[in-house]
Amino acid sequence: MKRVALFPGSFDPFTRGHEDIVLRGLNLFDEIVISIGYNSGKSQRYFAIEQMMAKIRETFKSYPQISVVTYAELTAEFAKKNGAKYLLRGLRNTTDFEYENSIAQVNRHLNQELESVFLITSPQFASINSSIIREVHRYKGDVSGFLPYNL
Ligand code: ADP
Predict the structure, then answer these.
(1) Does residue 89 have its Cβ closer than 6 Å to ligand 1?
(2) Cα–Cα separations (whole angstroms), residue 139 to 32, 33, 47, 131, 136
(3) Are 87 and 115 in contact (CB under 8 A)?
(4) Cβ distance 19 to 95 under 8 Å?
């Protein structure tokens, strides 16, 4: 049986930190489905979802085992539909831990077959944060060093 993991997130934008989690996840899973959620609490996106999907696809074009999709439903349900038994997430700090712990408990409640798997950030990406990148970009700062593709 193929080990399929969903890597869900807002990816607004997808960063080198996210890329690192996906590439390291390939050591654990046969397939990774990068899933851009429409239904996050952060209602209004900064980067268009279609643009981000295209950029992520371009980033991983040489990896047939990585796919990119969007979804607008419960992550636990979407995982089940995709035959994914694992949710891949990244942890940078205790703030991430608190948040991830709550989501993982809820997801387990919703789908007992789904296991959340956490990878600790690589030190060189630990401070990369999508919301700070949005701020820098908004004021025309250079964000290219934080992203694995050209905007
Ligand atoms: P969400 O809105 O669901 O938190 P994000 O796009 O912000 O989605 O992040 C998706 C996942 O990637 C989360 O588990 C987050 O903790 C993780 N992540 C974000 N940035 C980094 C980074 N620099 N290093 C490792 N993991 C990260």
Answers:
(1) yes
(2) 34, 32, 14, 13, 5
(3) yes
(4) no
Look at residue 85 and give its three-state secondary structure: coil
pLDDT at 43 over 90: no
Cβ(71) – ligand 1 distance below 6 Å: no
Using the mean position of ligand 1's atoms as its centre, give its distance from the Cα of residue 66 in Å. Answer: 17
| Domains, the chain, ordered by start | 4-146 (3.40.50.620)
Cβ atoms of 110 and 77 within 8 Å: the answer is yes
Strands 31-37 and 115-120: unpaired
* Model pLDDT for residues 95-149, shown as the tens digit of each residue: 999 999 999 999 999 999 999 999 999 999 999 999 999 999 999 999 999 999 9
- Find the 94 Cα to ligand 1 centroid distance in Å: 13
Question: Which strand (E) or helix (H) includes residue 88?
Answer: strand 86-91
| 21 CB near ligand 1 (under 6 Å) | yes
Question: Structure pTM?
Answer: 0.96
Distance of alpha carbon 148 from alpha carbon 62, whole angstroms: 14
Strands 31-37 and 4-9, sheet pairing: parallel
